[in-house]
């Protein structure tokens, strides 16, 4: 069953924020929403949580519409970060946890586990305003997962964190998914989505341009990349039929090609023209797919 | 479901109770109340207890003696006859041997007084002299035209007006005086509480919103439970503060006349107190709701005052009308206003206190008030739900409409 969105549309006056989104997110999966700012990700999340009513369509979680009755099953990390600045970490988490239907003792136990895991146990009795921004974000993440939700919605969970903390949070997210949590998250950082998600949806101006499993998307995309490192006259490479794009890198070039056979023509073309250190054929990155699809949508 | 209400309620109450600002404001208010109770003693402690010596240059025939006799009982002023020249008197004042001196003479049978002092800011002294002299003058003149003491008394006896209401249930004079005091005290308390705690609620909501924790809250608890929890949590807080202040105030005022006058009234009309409580509670709910909803559409805490303005004006307007209404409770304007829900808590209560209002009028006004509150809760919780998701550069009343639209499909 999982999370099902059927023809969901949201209008604010005449502005269409989300346009006819139909998605099905199976249970215990990690699902990524991609999109530029204003693509409709946050609005979609707010509709899933029941904070906003869809203008059209229906959203169900295991066959039921999400209401406050399900509050203990849902975890939410909003894009706009915020906690009570004057409250201590412990007081804060106890309040938020109790609002999700937990008992105080369970909250303290869970809180200690997470604080240890994030290596910040010393902040338990400090006021939130004394914490660094990154640590505040960890506390917010803890608030979202304290009650072990079955559906976890994370709006831009990694933004504003340093690489070490990003890794820490990513591991936590992966663990939660393996323990059976369905996770929906949004990001505009392709590499995060690429690493974590089996299923994705690329939103653009409220419309889901692409959605499906990552493998499937990459395979059906057809185009591949060729990476060449070495000392060669690269300029003439664009003349090879099937080469779509050329991008210079520090050590050489990165080419986008129409299909994998083109790579052999390229190899013939550069053969014996100079020193080749690396020549590799690679799957398209999510970035390539995103640029292609969103770029096409711009041109329409 | 109800469980969440109690969590919000307890959280609001406890965090506010433990906050520094609550502690400080309670202590300061308590000190002020305590100070008022001890005001007499404080003023006494600061004023110089010594008698003020006033020199008198008497240019009349026997008035000084009469004045002296009249002022014998006055402990603050001591009169001294001065027979030397006025220059000497001036010197005495300048060297602070005397507080002041007066020159007394009679013209056409009327006493004339010139008062000389270092400064003439202290009106108490001249007032005392004037009063004493007035008495002396009456006595002197009465003697001249041969009036007896009893005749003078008869001349000055105050006129007693006995007011009798012919309507069967109309209140007696004594009842009205009682009612006026109770109504006044309760109106004032209502005014203070609504303004103080109403803006506290608005601040609370605006702070939660501006610290962006609201979205987490609203995704875990329904806005109605949050609103009720906050409003009643702060109501309990206000009650706590009230009990503290009242206890201190009562202890410190125990011996003062003011309190005895207030509590010494026999037969405190119980029904009026009950009405007072009902209107107090409903009025608080109504305004607290308005403040909370406004707080939800504010993006930054700094904008709270600006947005609260119109609602504050409404409370002030109700209070002013009520103060005027205390003297003219029967005026058609007051009658009409007592049915306007925003004014009902103060003005209908005032009418009940001062007049004999038919029961159907009370029921009607209560129904209107409760209806408005119910409407505001339904309407307001929707705006609240939309408002807390909305962030703008500058907030305005138009945002009410936008917040409302945000909750629609």
Automatic annotation (TrEMBL), chain A:
One family name in Pfam for this protein: DrrA1-3_C
Protein name as annotated: ABC-type transporter ATP-binding protein EcsA
Family named by the database record: Belongs to the ABC transporter superfamily.
Q: ABC transporter domain: which residues?
A: 3-230
GO MF annotation terms? ATP binding; ATP hydrolysis activity
In terms of superkingdom, the source organism counts as: Bacteria
InterPro entries (UniProt xref): AAA+_ATPase (IPR003593), ABC_transporter-like_ATP-bd (IPR003439), ABC_transporter-like_CS (IPR017871), ABC_transporter_ATP-binding (IPR050763), DrrA1/2-like_C (IPR025302), P-loop_NTPase (IPR027417)
UniProt-listed SUPFAM superfamilies? P-loop containing nucleoside triphosphate hydrolases (SSF52540)
Q: Which UniProt keywords apply?
A: ATP-binding, Nucleotide-binding, Transport
Q: Which Gene3D superfamilies match?
A: P-loop containing nucleotide triphosphate hydrolases (3.40.50.300)
UniProtKB/TrEMBL annotation, chain B:
In terms of InterPro entries, this protein maps to: ABC-2_transporter_component, ABC2_TM
Show where the ABC-2 type transporter transmembrane domain sits: 20-380
Print the keywords alphabetically.
Cell membrane, Membrane, Transmembrane, Transmembrane helix
* Record's keyword annotation contains Lyase: no
Output the superkingdom of the source species.
Answer: Bacteria
Transmembrane ranges, per UniProt, are 21-39, 182-206, 227-252, 272-295, 307-326, 332-350, 362-384
**Pfam families per the UniProt record, alphabetical:** ABC2_membrane_3
| GO MF annotation terms | ABC-type transporter activity
Annotated membrane topology: Multi-pass membrane protein
Q: Which Gene3D superfamilies match?
A: Periplasmic binding protein-like II
Q: Where in the cell is it found?
A: Cell membrane
Where is it found, in Gene Ontology cellular component terms?
Answer: plasma membrane
Identify this protein by name: ABC-2 type transporter transmembrane domain-containing protein
Q: Which organism is it from?
A: Anoxybacillus ayderensis
């Amino acid at each position: 069953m999982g999370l099902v969105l059927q023809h969901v549309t949201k209008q604010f006056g005449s502005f269409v924020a989300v346009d006819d989104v139909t998605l099905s997110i199976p249970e215990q999966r990690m699902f990524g929403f991609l999109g530029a700012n204003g693509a409709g990700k946050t609005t979609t999340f707010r509709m899933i949580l029941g904070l906003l009513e869809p203008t059209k369509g229906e959203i169900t979680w295991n066959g039921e519409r999400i209401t406050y009755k399900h509050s203990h099953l849902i975890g939410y990390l909003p894009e706009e970060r915020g906690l009570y600045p004057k409250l201590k970490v412990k007081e804060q988490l106890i309040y938020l946890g109790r609002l999700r239907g937990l008992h105080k003792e369970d909250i303290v136990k869970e809180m200690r586990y997470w604080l240890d895991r994030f290596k910040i146990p010393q902040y338990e009795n400090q006021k939130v305003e004394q914490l660094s921004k990154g640590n505040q974000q960890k506390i917010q993440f803890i608030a979202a997962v304290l009650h072990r939700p079955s559906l976890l919605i994370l709006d831009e969970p990694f933004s504003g964190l340093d690489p070490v903390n990003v890794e820490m949070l990513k591991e936590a997210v992966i663990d939660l998914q393996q323990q059976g949590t369905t996770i929906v998250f949004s990001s505009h950082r392709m590499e995060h989505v690429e690493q974590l998600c089996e299923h994705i949806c690329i939103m653009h101006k409220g419309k889901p341009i692409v959605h499906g499993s990552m493998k499937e998307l990459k395979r059906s995309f057809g185009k591949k990349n060729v990476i060449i490192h070495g000392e060669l006259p690269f300029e003439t490479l664009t003349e090879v039929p099937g080469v779509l794009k050329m991008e210079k890198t520090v050590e050489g070039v990165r080419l986008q090609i129409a299909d994998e056979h083109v790579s052999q023509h390229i190899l013939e073309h550069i053969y014996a023209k100079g020193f080749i250190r690396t020549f590799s054929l690679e799957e398209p990155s999510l970035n390539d797919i995103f640029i292609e699809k969103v770029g096409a949508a711009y041109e329409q | 479901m109800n469980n969440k209400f109690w969590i919000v309620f307890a959280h609001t109450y406890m965090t506010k109770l433990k906050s520094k600002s609550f502690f400080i404001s309670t202590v300061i208010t308590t000190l002020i109340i305590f100070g008022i109770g001890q005001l007499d003693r404080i003023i006494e402690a600061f004023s110089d207890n010594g008698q003020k010596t006033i020199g008198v240059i008497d240019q009349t025939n026997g008035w000084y003696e009469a004045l002296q006799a009249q002022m014998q009982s006055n402990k603050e002023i001591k009169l001294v006859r001065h027979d030397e020249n006025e220059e000497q008197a001036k010197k005495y004042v300048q060297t602070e041997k005397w507080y002041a001196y007066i020159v007394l003479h009679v013209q056409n049978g009327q006493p004339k007084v010139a008062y000389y002092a270092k400064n003439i800011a202290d009106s108490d002294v001249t007032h005392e002299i004037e009063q004493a002299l007035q008495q002396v003058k009456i006595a002197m003149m009465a003697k001249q035209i041969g009036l007896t003491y009893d005749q003078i008394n008869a001349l000055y006896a105050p006129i007693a007006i006995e007011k009798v209401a012919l309507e069967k249930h109309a209140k007696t004079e004594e009842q009205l005086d009682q009612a006026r005091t109770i109504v006044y005290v309760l109106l004032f308390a209502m005014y203070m509480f609504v303004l103080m705690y109403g803006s506290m609620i608005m601040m609370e909501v605006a702070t939660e919103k501006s610290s962006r924790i609201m979205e987490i809250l609203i995704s875990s608890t329904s806005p109605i439970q949050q609103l009720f929890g906050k409003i009643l949590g702060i109501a309990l807080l206000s009650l706590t503060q009230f009990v503290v202040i009242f206890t201190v105030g009562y202890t410190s005022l125990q011996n003062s006349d003011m309190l005895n006058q207030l509590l010494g009234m026999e037969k405190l009309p119980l029904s009026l107190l009950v009405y007072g409580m009902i209107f107090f509670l409903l009025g608080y709910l109504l305004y607290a709701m308005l403040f909370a909803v406004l707080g939800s559409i504010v993006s930054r805490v700094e904008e709270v005052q600006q947005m609260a303005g119109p609602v504050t004006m409404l409370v002030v307007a109700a209070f002013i009308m009520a103060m005027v209404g205390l003297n003219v409770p029967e005026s058609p304007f007051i009658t009409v206003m007592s049915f306007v829900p925003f004014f009902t808590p103060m003005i209908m209560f005032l009418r009940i206190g001062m007049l004999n209002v038919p029961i159907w009028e009370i029921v009607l006004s209560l129904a209107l008030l409760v209806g408005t509150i119910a409407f505001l809760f339904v309407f307001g919780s929707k705006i609240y739900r939309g408002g807390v998701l909305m962030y703008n550069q500058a907030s305005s009343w138009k945002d009410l409409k936008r917040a409302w639209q945000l909750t629609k499909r």
